[in-house]
Amino acid sequence: MKIQKSIVSALLLLSFCASAATFAEGRFERNHPRRAEVLGRDRNLRQDIRSEHGNLHGQAGNLMAQDRRIQRQERRDARMNGGHITGQEERRLNREQNRLHREIRRDQH
How far apart are CA 54 and CA 19, in angstroms? Predict the structure, then answer.
């Protein structure tokens, strides 16, 4: 009986530690400056596509698909690096976002 209580106590402690680590990682992910910058730009791009939907000459779906690819890549990069992205990954994502931004502007006219 005493051994069972010890095992249960150990499992509860491990569970608590794991949940605390997950919580801390989640906070780190949201507050990391490089990630926050990339995610903020992504929100702006999505808003641009949505607000200009009628002026994009049928390209809104294609532009949203490109945006989703950038989002997936950002999440993949962050997952591989413990919840943040490296400077090199940020630069690559920014280049892709800049390309998408130019395409949105070009398709508006």
Answer: 45
Whether the pLDDT of residue 99 is over 90: the answer is: yes
Structure tokens at 54: 């009628």
CA 16 to chain centre: 26
Dihedral of CA atoms 2, 8, 12, 14 in degrees, nearest 10, equals: 90
Which pLDDT belongs to residue 24?
Answer: 46
Burial of 93 (0-12, 13-18, 19+ CB in 10 A): buried
Number of compact structural domains in the chain: 2
Distance CA 14, CA 20 (A): 10
Rounded CA separation 32/17 (Å): 22
Q: Which two tokens stand for residue 39?
A: 């995610």
% of residues, the chain, pLDDT over 70: 71
Residue 5 domain boundaries: 1-31
